[in-house]
Amino acid sequence: MDETILERIQRLESELDEVREGVSKIELMQNQGQVDFVDFGDIKLFMLKNDNLYDRFVPDSKKNQSIRDYLLDAKRLPKPLIGNSVNHLFFHILNHLWDNGFKVTVLDVGCHIGLFGLRLANLIRYSGRPGEVVLFDIGRTAELVPPNIRVNRLGGVAHFERIAISDISGPAILYHKPGYSDSDNIFSDHLKGSLSYLVDSIALHEYITKSRIEGALVIKLDVEGLEPQIIQNIKDILLDRIVILTFEFTPSRFEKQELIGNLFSELFAHFLLFDIFYAIQPTQLVEIEPSTLTNYVDSIYNRTYGYTDILCIPKKLKQLDRLLVRLNNLRQLANLYSLCQLELPEGNH
Hints:
Blueprint lengths: L4 H27 L3 E5 L4 E5 L3 H6 L9 H6 L16 H11 L4 E6 L5 H13 L3 E6 L8 H7 L6 E4 L2 E3 L3 E7 L18 E9 H8 L4 E6 L5 H7 L1 H6 L2 E7 L8 H13 E5 L10 E2 L5 H9 L6 E7 L5 H9 L21
Parallel strand pairs: 3-4, 3-9, 4-5, 6-8, 9-10
Antiparallel strand pairs: 1-2, 7-8, 10-13, 11-12, 11-13
């Protein structure tokens, strides 16, 4: 049954009350010098100050935005910025899935402040196409994700699960080093000297199965070294479903180098693999060939931070050739690490 005007007003007032409550908590943190409100071009999000990503990868011009102005403009809904560079490649992938009749569920695993997933949630809301976004994190920034959903009024298409995603379900130890919230993880204390906490975790396969998620999946894995194990955990889902997968690849975190070959061998059998440099803001789309895998892995060791993000597109995807033409026509950019839009579409500068 369609809601009445009165019911709609009551619902909107309730949503605004939730936003105000969340913002009040954030403002308390701001007064303690911990949080800032940052402009990411299409959406605005809360971030931790004095933290690695905030200090190094957010321009000063994007910091210190007015929460009050953003909330007072109640009619404003953030508009996704869709351009013709690889910076916007996931927008084009979602459009391809919709054009082929799929409902899309995005699983942003290791979402940090929610930037990747909430950008796609914003596209889903704006387009009116069928889809939802589920964001997962258990680290220091987890408390920021619900307010980030609410302040951008994305509650209708995005929700947050405060739990660690793993390849097994049960208690886990979270490693957190102050000032490096992007490295919070349940895999290892690779930064050395981290604080440790007991948290709950759930296997991704179990979560997907219990949640009865339908349609195509877009899965982003950024779990600081646990990616291969989670990929193995959802192996049958990758084979049985339409899954667009992107994951962080850090070769130095593999205990044995032959495990790298095993991972890629299984993926090459069913997916086309591309190096996109940085999933938050892709700058390139370079296909990874099985015949040159050894040289490719060696080149990742030599990158500034020793990792990259890999995009996997299933070979069985409908109209795959058409998608590849679309993606290969996207303009590639200089490889830079940035959380903010590297290139805005014309008319949005």
